[in-house]
Amino acid sequence: MNSKRIVFLLLAVIVAGTTAFLARAWLQAERAAIAAQITAPKPVAAPSVQVLVARNALRIGQLIKPEDLRWQAWPQGALPQTYIIEGKKPLTDFVGAVARTSFRVGQPIADTDIVMPGSRGFLAAVLRPGLRAVSVPATATSAVSGFIYAGDRVDVLLTHALKAEGTGAEHHATETILRNARVIAMDQKLDFAPGDKPDVAKTATLELTAKQTEIVTLGVRMGELSLVLRSLQDEEERDGEGNSDDATAELGQSYTHDTQVSRLIKEPAPPKPPAAAKPALFVLRGPGRTKLELDGSTTPDGLPPGESEKPNTPKGTTLTSPSVPQ
To answer: Are the beta carbons of 226 and 161 closer than 8 angstroms?
Structure first.
């Protein structure tokens, strides 16, 4: 046999053996990797709880509204004790609280960083310098069926009875006595069981100036007060000039009379002007005095002699009334 053929055969056997060995090693590695993936334990997700966080950015002294809060999943490991966990208290219990510090969006809210309504120091934390807190009675109709929360802006309306001048007939009128007043507290309770009716607030606490508190307090005695909820768009418009929470209530100017509501009620007649005094002359003759009308008639003055005369006035002097030009 030719030696060249023997060399080629040996080379072919060596290449085939090497290829088979490498293929076997690759198959074993793939099988081991697949087996490792099947038998490897899946990572266990860390347990989490629902924590109360800020849905919107909050600043110091701001009243918290329902839309400012939400629940968010949070890892349970190393959870601070001050975080508020779902299940212990409903979210509505924190509506109306005051932020002691500023909160970023998504930041957990700690119970030490808010002041709850009714707790000691609540009004001191929410009231701005120079302003006062005054409570007014509220009902389901006067407080928009319980849809007014702490931090909202309202107008205060007064409905009272009026006596028509002259006739004494009774009329009614409604007037806006305050505009853009900030509500700082409502005693409404919202955590009721399904099927129960909400406990509508019976009082609303407003933040006003000293003069405005006098107006509201007197309005409670004069008639019935109603709170009218203002739109949030009004606050957005004010944000261009300054934060709406810094705005102070203003005195109202508009009013509505019952004659504007019903055409069956007649407007009260305007009072008659007082009769104008007729110009006259007073003639002194001796101890008496006579009143002489400009139309020519004369009537005695009716005053006792001596009292009708002015001091140092000679007898027989004619005096003119102050209403007659000299």
So the answer is: no
pLDDT for 235: 59
Residue 239 to residue 237: CA distance in whole angstroms: 5
pLDDT digits (tens, 9 = 90+) for 134-167: 999 887 776 666 678 888 899 999 999 988 776 7
Q: What are phi and psi of 39, to 5 degrees?
A: -85, -15
Under a CB-based contact definition with an 8 Å cutoff, are residues 122 and 107 in contact? no
Distance CA 235, CA 299 (A): 72
Residue 122 has what DSSP assignment? H
This model's pTM is above 0.90: no
What is the CATH topology of the domain spanning 48-115?
Answer: Type Iii Antifreeze Protein Isoform Hplc 12 (3.90.1210)
Distance of CA 4 to the CA centre of its chain: 105
The domain limits of the chain are: 1-35, 48-115, 131-261, 280-320
User: E strands, the chain, where?
Assistant: 48-54, 69-75, 98-99, 114-115, 132-137, 153-163, 170-186, 203-208, 224-229, 250-251, 255-257, 280-285, 288-293, 298-300, 318-320
Distances (CA, A) of 84 to 124, 184, 185, 289: 24, 23, 22, 95
- Alpha carbon of 321 to those of 9, 118, 298, 299: distances in Å? 157, 71, 14, 15
